[in-house]
From TrEMBL, chain A:
GO terms for cellular component: plasma membrane. It is a multi-pass membrane protein. The chain crosses the membrane at residues 21-41, 287-305, 333-357, 377-410, 422-446, 679-700, 728-747, 762-785. Residues 289-404, 679-792 form the ABC3 transporter permease C-terminal domain. InterPro entries: ABC3_permease_C, MacB_PCD, Macrolide_Exporter_MacB. Keywords: Cell membrane, Membrane, Transmembrane, Transmembrane helix. This is Putative ABC transport system permease protein. One of its GO terms (molecular function) is transmembrane transporter activity. Residues 20-239 form the MacB-like periplasmic core domain. It holds the Pfam family MacB_PCD. It is found in: Cell membrane.
UniProtKB/TrEMBL annotation, chain B:
Belongs to the ABC transporter superfamily. Macrolide exporter (TC 3.A.1.122) family. SMART domains: AAA (SM00382). Pfam families: ABC_tran. InterPro entries: AAA+_ATPase, ABC_transporter-like_ATP-bd, ABC_transporter-like_CS, ABC_transpr_LolD-like, MacB-like_ATP-bd, P-loop_NTPase. The keyword Lipoprotein applies. GO terms for cellular component: membrane protein complex; plasma membrane. This is ABC-type lipoprotein export system ATPase subunit. Residues 3-222 form the ABC transporter domain. It comes from Gelidibacter algens. GO terms for molecular function: ATP binding; ATP hydrolysis activity; transmembrane transporter activity. It comes from the Bacteria. Gene3D superfamilies: P-loop containing nucleotide triphosphate hydrolases (3.40.50.300).
Length: 799, 222
């Protein structure tokens, strides 16, 4: 019997080429999208579950006080870890983790060669046991047994040393420490937030030995005893604050334990972690939602097309029933047919998904390999998809069509089918409403991106290269580099800074009164007298920072933005000029000038307080040169820059960054969201159109006789085209009415994430509505015209 | 007796009025009869055949088939009954387009859960008998009308029904093809199959042993 079903179903599939093509195309696209996204989600969810202690490892996070808006931070004082280990018996092991130089790129020197490195960490030696390091050379016990040891990953070893043996080789970091390689470990799993390429002992540095409760720069991981209640440990840990920190110094109030496997996806609201491998559960959820939507639209297509085709199929069902088939047998026949169709679609969709991986990467920036597509959960998922899609897509046609009476054979049962028509129309409305929502969403997202890109930052990031000089051996080297750069033709101005905007500034606070305990947190950045010129800041009161300061001048000259001035309650910027500013820089800090507010962070955040300062003896060093250039030939200019750099700082790696690219990077995830949603929407709309095309074909077929009669009576081709298109347009309009408020609500919510956002314009809705109408019209009119120009003699001929 | 219709009424409501499709039909059919139902278009021939074939219901009256009362039966049992005893032949043949000649003939056996080997034998016999062995792998669209109707008859016969209902079986055929089909019916009838056909043609009606005339849903007792 089943063989017979398959045979009949297969021949039906072959007999209705157009329907088969439309269905398989739609379903295959839907399946392809789902497989890729399921693989992606599967990979994201697999993060950090592979360590033998994964279940018991937690990252300690802390909640800050009101001064810092109660933000949650992933970094904390280096005293937290040791205190927890000592005072809380449930804590079995602990390691602190900090990126060398607080996350700045490190400059390495091996022999005569210079390298840059972004994955250099300091940690306690317990890290090797906690995270299952597998040593290829050396052992985890011996790794830090000698002072000044460093261990490196296999791939880093290859990068730095090639085929040569790395053990006992020396690496000079930032022209400061010389470390000896004491071990090489197998690269950590890709799906781990642990992204260190090289680790050296935190106890070799003041960072490990000088334990204090102030500077919050250290990530802290704890491994609890098995089966310990983490909430209990959190409570005990939070009690340590009162025990060790006096009231004044308590800028954090609570500790949280975040399970290791959750760090990857659930850290979007947590500030200041070091890992570069963070995902976002919101992205995952929205991708999942979108892919299911695309698949659902494809299923609806199938339902619509299959039932639309029922007129043609009715005869076959009638005959089978007369020949003795019962309803269940017909039901099975339809399910078998759907099953085969879905199977073909899945095979095609699966095959295409392998080819589409590079595309996926370029759209979303996420890398997937073939192995991710072949993972067991994916294969199980595909089987499940097959079953579910067959059941869902097959249900409506099977149930509605298996009930057809054999009387159709004798023209007795005129299937009015008002119910099935209603369902079909409802499904079309759903598809189009979804499409319209997507069109509106895409338009607003793209608008917002354009808004952000074109918004005036308050400084000009274009045409500036930031060159790292933090590993310079002497200050003289930096000074002479500045001198020789300023002499070059293509260089407009050079400014030495602690950090380029929004990167490694120092967190300080500005106080209204010297005796205040709470103030405005600001970013402070040491610089020189050229900063206004180089960044093209706008001075609105007072002067720029002085280019030269006389020997023995102990004044700290500062340049603050409007935000600071208004916090300090000065009525005008002019009023602030020349006043003492209370901050952690001592009592000799003066406001030299005030600049217009500028966005050093992304537009998602409000502009914060910012302070540039210049002083003879400053607590921070000069780490970066901002070079404003006017060269058209970038590669030549950079070559020239590098040459000058190497001549002046022969022992330091040349590490540079374009400031405008750094700014663009702030919106990278939104850019990706935009392109992802655009692609998905395109696919969803395309699939919906496939369905509409089929439906139009069906309607034309169904009304063949009516059209024939009308033509005989003198109707024109345009008249008939209009007649046939009208019904579909009505559905699109209903869809629009449903979609517009939903889209408005959704996008309003999305925009709330941005501190600076575009308005939602009425024309976006008009545009989306017109686009949907146009798309529907083009799709439908093809069939309508075809029906309208057909010869009426053919359609009116009786059997 | 094969079947018996007593005072059958069937109507539809149209514009608030009752339109009678069948009105007070009484009919007794013995096994082995060959009955022709005649009458103009719209006289109720097809409706009567559909009622007898249990494809369609009726509002009033009694219908007994092989001693069982069809009018009080549930849908499921009714379809079981006609599956078992009745074969249908249609004016438009109604072959399944996607199946070959062989598969079309085989289909009723599949629905009766006949074993594969037995099916093969039965279908082979039937093909042999209708001289269609050479055409068994062709699809309906590759056959002439007469040949299609032959397949239709073969398919109706394969499950060994007691009764064959034929609604204008030669309506779409030319006179030579018609004659072949009617000759075939006559042979089948002589082998013991009961046949009821609806027809416009006096010539075809003459093949039968008894003619029933219908007019406006009533038996026309001329």
């Amino acid at each position: 019997m089943i063989r017979n079903y398959i045979k009949i179903a297969w021949r039906n599939i072959l007999a209705n080429k157009l329907f088969t093509l439309l269905n398989i195309a739609g379903l295959a696209i839907g399946v392809c999208v789902c497989i890729i996204l399921f693989s992606f989600v599967n990979k994201e969810l697999s993060y950090d579950k592979m360590y033998s202690n994964s279940e018991n490892i937690y990252r300690v996070n802390m909640e800050t006080s009101e001064d810092y808006d109660f933000e949650t931070w992933a970094t904390m004082p280096n005293a937290v870890g040791p205190a927890m280990l000592k005072d809380i018996p449930q804590v079995k092991k602990m390691t602190r983790l900090i990126k060398d130089d607080f996350g700045a790129t490190a400059s390495l020197k091996i022999g005569e060669k210079n390298f840059t490195e972004n994955g250099l960490y300091l940690a306690d030696s317990t890290i090797f046991e906690m995270f299952d390091f597998k040593f290829i050379s050396g052992t985890h016990e011996s790794a830090f047994s000698k002072p000044k040891s460093i261990v490196i990953s296999k791939s880093t070893k290859v990068r730095l040393f090639g085929e040569q043996d790395a053990m006992n080789q020396f690496i000079t970091v930032n022209n400061r420490d010389t470390l000896q390689v004491a071990g090489v470990y197998a690269d950590l799993p890709k799906n781990s937030v642990m992204d260190f390429n090289m680790v050296y002992n935190i106890m070799d540095s003041w960072m490990g030995t000088n334990v204090y409760w102030s500077n919050a720069s250290y990530e802290t991981y704890v491994q609890l005893q098995p089966n310990v209640n983490s909430a209990e440990v959190e409570k005990q840990a939070s009690k340590l604050i009162d025990k060790y920190v006096d009231k004044e110094g308590q800028y954090f109030t609570k500790f949280f334990l975040q399970p290791l496997p959750k760090i990857h996806l659930y850290s979007a609201d947590i500030r200041e972690g070091y890992s570069t491998k963070l995902g976002n559960i919101t992205t995952i959820k929205s991708l999942l939602f979108l892919s299911l939507l695309v698949l659902l639209i494809a299923c609806i297509n199938y339902m619509n097309l299959a039932t639309a085709n029922s007129q043609k199929r009715a005869k076959g069902i009638g005959i089978n029933k007369v020949l003795g088939a019962n309803r269940n047998q017909m039901l099975s026949l339809f399910y078998v047919e759907t099953g085969i169709m879905v199977f073909l679609s899945i095979i095609i969709g699966y095959a295409v998904s392998f080819l589409a991986l590079p595309l996926f990467k370029s759209i979303t920036g996420n890398e997937l390999g073939y192995s991710d597509l072949l993972a067991t959960p994916i294969l199980v998922g595909i089987l499940l998809t097959w079953g579910v899609v067959t059941l869902v897509a097959g249900s409506y046609p099977a149930i509605s069509m298996s009930g057809i009476s054999p009387l159709v054979l004798v023209n007795k049962s005129k299937k009015k089918g008002s119910a099935s028509e209603f369902v079909r129309k409802g499904l079309v409305v759903f598809q189009f409403a979804a499409s319209i929502i997507l069109i509106i969403a895409v338009t607003i997202i793209l608008q917002q991106m354009a808004f952000i890109k074109n918004k005036n930052l308050g400084y000009d990031p274009n045409g500036i290269i930031a060159v790292s000089v933090k590993s310079a051996e002497t200050e003289q080297q930096v000074a002479s580099l500045i001198k020789s750069l300023e002499r070059q033709v293509n260089v407009e101005s050079v400014s030495a800074v602690q950090a380029m905007p929004g990167t490694n500034e120092s967190g300080r606070s500005v106080y209204k009164l010297a005796t205040d305990n709470t103030g405005l947190p600001i970013a402070s950045c040491r610089t020189d007298g050229n900063i206004v010129n180089t960044l093209k800041l706008k001075v609105i009161a007072g002067n720029e920072l002085p280019v030269t300061i006389a020997e023995g001048d102990s004044i700290i000259y500062t340049l603050v933005n409007e935000k600071v001035v208004s916090y300090l309650n000065y009525k005008t910027p002019e009023e602030a000029v020349g006043k003492i500013i209370h901050t952690e820089l001592g009592s000799r800090a003066l406001i030299t000038g005030v600049v217009e507010n500028f966005n050093f962070n992304s537009f998602k955040e409000d502009i914060g307080g910012y302070m540039y300062y210049k002083a003879i003896s400053a607590p921070e060093g000069i780490r970066t040169l901002l070079v404003r250039y006017n060269s058209q030939n970038l590669s030549q200019f950079i070559g020239q820059l590098q040459q000058t750099f190497n001549e002046t700082l022969p022992n330091t790696a040349f590490d540079y960054q374009f400031v405008d690219r750094h700014v663009a990077q702030l919106y990278a995830s939104e850019e990706k969201t935009a392109s992802t949603v655009t692609i998905f929407s395109g696919l969803a709309i395309f699939i919906a159109c496939l369905g509409l095309f089929g439906l139009a074909a069906f309607t034309a077929e169904q009304r063949k006789k009516e059209i024939g009669v009308r033509k005989v009576l003198g109707a024109t081709v345009t008249g008939i085209t209009r007649l046939l298109s009208k019904d579909f347009l009505k559905l699109v309009l209903i869809a629009f009415v449903v979609a517009a408020p939903v889209a408005y609500w959704l996008m309003q919510k999305w925009l709330l994430d941005f501190a600076y956002r575009t308005e939602i314009n009425w024309w976006v809705f008009v545009f989306a509505g017109l686009a949907a109408v146009l798309i529907a019209l083009i799709t439908v009119s093809f069939q309508a015209i075809k029906a309208a120009i057909a010869n009426p003699v053919k359609s009116l001929r009786t059997e | 007796m094969l079947l018996e219709l007593n005072n059958i009424f069937k109507w539809v409501n149209q514009g608030g009025k009752r339109i009678y499709l069948l009105s007070d039909i009484n009919l007794k059919v013995e096994e082995g009869e060959f009955i022709s139902i005649m009458g103009p278009s719209g006289s109720g021939k097809s409706t009567l055949l559909n009622v007898i074939g249990m494809l369609d219901g009726f509002q009033e009256g009694e219908y007994n088939f092989l001693g069982e009362s069809v009018h009080s039966m549930k849908e499921k049992n009714r379809s079981k009954l006609y599956k078992e005893y009745i074969g249908f032949v249609f004016q438009a043949y109604h072959l399944i387009d996607e199946l070959t000649v062989y598969e079309n003939i085989e289909t009723p056996l599949l629905y009766k859960n006949v074993k594969s080997s037995e099916r093969k034998a039965l279908v082979a016999d039937m093909l042999d008998r209708f001289n269609m062995v050479g055409k068994k792998d062709l699809f309906p669209s590759q056959l002439s009308g007469g040949q299609q109707q032959l397949v239709g008859v073969a398919r109706a016969l394969i499950a060994k029904p007691k009764l064959i209902l034929a609604d204008e079986p030669t309506g779409n055929l030319n006179s030579k093809q018609s004659e072949e089909i009617m000759q075939l019916f006559k042979e089948l009838n002589q082998e013991g199959v009961t046949i009821i056909q609806a027809t416009h043609s006096e010539t075809n009606a003459a093949y039968g042993s008894r003619v029933i005339h219908l007019l406006d849903g009533r038996r026309d007792q001329q």
